[in-house]
Amino acid sequence: MITESLLKQVLIEQKELIKPSPEYIERDLIKKVLQFHKLKHIVVITGHRRAGKSVFLSQIIHKYYGMDEVYYLNLDDERLASLKSEDMNKVMEVFHVLFGNKKVIFLDEIQNLESWERFVARLYNQGYKIYITGSNARLLSSELATLLTGRYVEIELFPFSFREFLIYRRFYIDDVEKQKAYYKTETKAQIRRLLDEYLKTGGFPEIVRYKEPSILRTLFSDVITKDVVNRYRIKEVKTIKEIAHFLLSNSTNEFSYNRIKNIYSLGSVHTVKNYVEYLTSTYMFFELSRFSYSLKEVHTKVKKIYVIDNGFIDAIGFSSSPDIGRLYENLVFIELRRRGADLYYYKDKRGRETDFVVRDKRNIKEAIQVCYNVEDDTVLKREVSGLIYCMKELGLKNGLIITSTMEGRKNMNGFNIGFLPLWKWLLNLIG
């Protein structure tokens, strides 16, 4: 049982810790919150551990409210580990005693509170404006979450985008855009040098700041232990860790549940599906389905696997020299997810593949191929051929190949193919 004196100490200290720091950069998603902060709806912010959710909450508080207007509680504090949903009345009482009557509350890492949905629903009915964060992609998939149906909006927070990474490095791309200076050789060289760094080390704020890969190795281990093994009470600890490393080492590739079952001598494919689902729920991995007009085929065909941040591939991968093409593809996938795209990959019966198909409801919006090694004519021909077959099959006239350096448009067999360097695509610099 947590004491009132300890609660007071924790709440006062947490209020101090949530104060903004000049080292922080404003996240691009802060603009999205503007749409929601005046609504009654609960704002749910989900994302990977250490992706910057607490700092993002701090930015929301200080941009739209002020510390004197809100309550803040971080449930990832080890001193609150014994806190139960029935203890939350005491927490609210202490809030009132310490800070007076407020009607805005921020609840950080809410998944650490069992049956949190009932407590949040009660606050909502009492007229509170509520912001919650969680490190689980299925935060609102439980039966209890039906209590909140229609009462919330959800925002996914990823590690730094390339634009945010540049700003942290004091390279202000908006100034470059205004001046059209990205056409200058020295500016392009500087951006590409920074892209090479971002491509390998990724965008986790702590890594961008400290440049220490051991942080990612520890984070990877902590996520598997805390968010998978402990949460789902996994007994085969060694196996789940090996599967996580298998998925990491096979990122951007196809994988099958049956193959994993055989490699690790698991009892059933169902067990493998559960393990992969637990791992993807942490935002560490993402499954990508093969495109089909048949919903049954979408669910049953072999999937591809991607990882939340390239830094994990570089810090934990088994290759001494990472495959740059693989890093390109993984980065494009994450950026498309960041932009909210409904994604698939395309592969025909002859094995001709297109990396990404973007769907908008029932319509196919875009087909994208990623090709780092554009100087190899064989590779480029294969990638163009795969894209054209995909476009022909899906009724598209325009396609995009994201490259390392090639830029322009070509009409090929009646199809309009655009070529754009990765750095320009990431920054939305077209033309």
Properties at a glance:
single chain, 431 residues, alpha/beta, six-stranded mixed β-sheet, 14 strands
Summarize the structure.
This protein has 431 residues and is an alpha/beta fold. Helix content is 44%, strand content 18%.
Helix fraction, binned, reads 40-55%
For the residues shown, what is the average pLDDT?
92
Our estimate of the beta-strand percent is 15-25%
* Count of helix runs: 18
Strand order of the largest sheet: 9-10-11-12-14-13
Which consecutive residue ranges, at least 5 long each, have pLDDT under 50?
none
General shape: globular
Distance between the termini: 62 Å
Rg from Cα:
23 Å
Q: Which structural class fits the helix and strand makeup? A: alpha/beta
What is the number of beta strands?
14
